[in-house]
Structure formats: C-alpha cells, structure tokens
Amino acid sequence: METRRALTTAAALLLLLACSGASVSDRAQQSSPAGASPSASIGTRAPDTSLSGRIVFDNHEDVWSINAGGTNLTRLTRSPWPEFDATWSPDGTQIAFRSERGGDPEIWLMNADGSEPRRLAPGLSPAWSPDGSEIAYSSPGDILCPPGRGLGCTGISIMNADGSRRHRVPNTDGGEYPSWSPDGERIAFNSNLSGDHVMYIVDVDGSGLVDLSSVGEGWQVDWSPDGRSILFTSHRDHPDNYTDIYVMRPDGSGVERLTNNSAYTPAWSPDGRDIVFSAPGLFVMRADGSGVTSLPAAGVGETSLPDWV
User: Fold this and answer.
1) Quick check: 277 and 304 in contact, CB under 8 A?
2) List of residues 6+ apart from 34 with CB closer than 8 A
3) Quick one: pLDDT at residue 27?
4) Half-sphere exposure in the Cβ direction for 81 (13 Å, CA)
C-alpha cells in the first residue's frame, strides 16, 4: 500500500485500534498491495454509456462522484483531512460519509453536490435504510472487548437521518460496514472480534442473529436490491493480502467468486444487474462477473468504497 495511505488514515487507525482491535486492518486489507494491478482484460473496454445513475466513491482522501456511464467526474470534498466511506440516500439527494476533521471518525452528511456538510455522530461506515429515514453505522462503544482485542468495542448503531435517536443494536459487537436488507428488517455486517472477518445478519432490534462464520472470512457486504444475494470482499483464495469479490445467498449458501483481479469494495447497481468495484481503479461488471469495463477517473488515484444510486 502506498505510504500516503498510511499517513492519511492515521487518525482512523488509532480509533479503530482502541475500539475493536483487529479492525484496524479493514481499510488496509481492502486495498491491493503496492504494485498490484488488474489483469489485462480489465480496462480495455470503454464505459457502457447505457448505464444510468450516479456513483459516489473515495480515493482515501476525498469524496468523488461520476455518472455510471463514465461522464461528469466531480470532486465533492476538498479537505486537508481524510473523508471517505460515502453512501447515497435512496433518493439521491444526500450523501452520508466519514470525516476525520475532528481527529476521530465521524459521520457527516452533505447534499449530492457536496454543499452544506453537517456532522451527525461519531462513527464510520454509514448505510442508509431503504426508506431513507435511518442510517446504520459502526459506532465507538464502552463495551469491553474480549482480552487482547481492545478496551472498547465498536458495534452497529442506528440513528435517524438527521442524527437523532441514536441507539446500539444488540449482538453486533465489533460490527462494521452494515448493509440493510431491501425490506429494511435486517442488517448484514462483519465483525473481527474472533481475529478474522466474520459475517453476520441481525434483525434491526438485535434479535435473530445469523452467524455466517461457516462461509469463511469476508467483509464489506452489500445486499442486492432483490434481497436474494449479498456481495462481499475476501482474501480466501490468496496466500497474501490480495482480495477478490464474492457473492452468496443470505443464508450463506451458493458462494461464488466473481473476480480474479485483486478487486474489493463492491456495490450493486440500483436494478441489481451490475456491480461497481475497485481494483484499484473504478470498474463496473455484470452481476455474474462478466463484461468488466473501467470508469475514467484520471487523476483520482486509488479508489475505494463506491456506492450507486
């Protein structure tokens, strides 16, 4: 990983170390090691101009957006501190994101054009509920972690979209990168309190916890619009820190590998027909992993955590 990456996320890593021990590895492991590059087949085709919608993403330093067809690349934040983890509101009018401007990870909100940024709560990895009324996120906590895992555990919390009525979801200790089911009744997330990234699903009230450890390690989950599939990142097929993108059913069955190009941070298109991901540039592929095309993001550098509306 580039030296600049380590410098720009120092504050974030310190908070994660205090909150959840091994979770400091999440951001590091989502990126390819230095010198990694996709296979020659990636990026040789022009963007599919028939794709609709807009994609928001980060370059580990600022938040950007681009049309899914590859036009109108726009820088939304220009900050001396890291800002990333951006996600669209369901109606596409607002973006929740993570900012380090206060020295610790915080959830902020801004308009789709980057205007009117405002702070919501301490935390990271925000995710909007399907109806846009709430945001799930990973919050710092005062719950003691298991021995050797840190002083206090992060966990999944939910708040109203204006930052009010914050509450911790039970049975989500160490939880990060939440993703709502399309019906708004369940949340998929990953936790690494066991020493590796384990995926879970929980009802929004904390009941009905589903342990997906039998699937193997995985993180950065994204629930499909039809509710039938969940994307995730994993390094299960790599002897080093490289990662690829996989898909499974919500019960953990039917695991399939979709990429072979050191890919990470996948997200579904609104219609579920396509997937946007980083590798480490910005790419789009069909839901079955075919038809990979690159999105032009010249001058942006390494991309991460895209979201499509």
Assistant:
1) no
2) 1, 2
3) 40
4) 12
A 10 A CB-CB count for 225 gives 14
CA-to-CA distance for 2 and 204, rounded, in angstroms? 38
The pLDDT assigned to 145 comes to: 65
**Residue 246 neighbours by CB distance under 10 Å:** 23
Q: Which residues pair with 203 in a beta bridge?
A: 186
d(CA 173, CA 109): 25
Cβ of 256: how many Cβ atoms within 10 Å?
12
Determine the pLDDT at residue 72. 95
What's residue 150's pLDDT? 57
Residues in the chain, pLDDT under 70? 1-46, 142-152
The residue length of the chain stands at 309
Q: Is 99 helix (H, G, I), strand (E, B) or coil?
A: strand
Q: Where are the beta strands (DSSP E) in 33-82?
A: 54-58, 63-67, 74-75
Please report the pLDDT score of residue 233 as a whole number: 97
